[in-house]
Amino acid sequence: MSGLRLGPLGAAAVAVLLLPAAGAAQSGDELGERIAAASGDRVTFHFDVEPDVRVCENGFSRGDERRFHGSWNGGEPRCVEGPMEVLIERRAGVIHEVDYGPTGSHAGARDLGRVDPLEASAFLLTLHARGARSDAAEDGLAGAVVARGAEPGRGLIELGRNRSLDSDLRQAALFWASQEAAEGIDTTLAGIAADEAEDQDVRDAAVFGLSQRPDAEAVPALMDLALSAPHVQTRKTALFWLSQSDDGRVPDFFAQLILGSGG
């Protein structure tokens, strides 16, 4: 899956001439129409990002853990404060690539200027429905998550549950959902992980997503899956991610598994 390259792996400012209607901002359709009508195969726009996001060459970093999305030739990339610029590359009208960087970093592209971050998030979240290549749609999810004020958790979970979509896209959606603070994400991920009708790759992605949640949510859910998930592979995956945790409950859990409750 594309996404974090180091892992298993845009509001107040608007378009210059007119304010988009609330519905347009929520759907991303107006931005999609502007991009479709723009001349050339390379189109950019930029939007405000969350305060903990820094925009890097060919990507971005987020939070104190210095997690990166993007690709570099070596070393830590140069990162600056937002806004973030998105490059949409098309071939024969089809979106083939999505790239990120500081404003002005994609020379020669048709620039649409600054857009509402909620509109940008909605557009990037729905690239799959706009005919984009699957890997481009995956990369779009990353930008949808960091747009200032956006709450894409529900949309990401809907993508993750949609069995008509490419498996890699679904797995990417579950990963990015795990990065959201939305209430109930852990329960939803656990339900997908335990779904007997689901593909194993998607179940495993849901388990990994759980492992990315705060320990208070992740550890009990992973323990429950390790004990009761219908599929052996899911139980093994839950045990693996528990073994990577430094939560104090995990050693006792493994001891009980190995020695039995009376050990």
TrEMBL record:
<dbReference type="InterPro" id="IPR016024">
    <property type="entry name" value="ARM-type_fold"/>
</dbReference>
<dbReference type="InterPro" id="IPR011989">
    <property type="entry name" value="ARM-like"/>
</dbReference>
<feature type="signal peptide">
    <location>
        <begin position="1"/>
        <end position="27"/>
    </location>
</feature>
<keyword id="KW-0732">Signal</keyword>
<protein>
    <submittedName>
        <fullName>HEAT repeat domain-containing protein</fullName>
    </submittedName>
</protein>
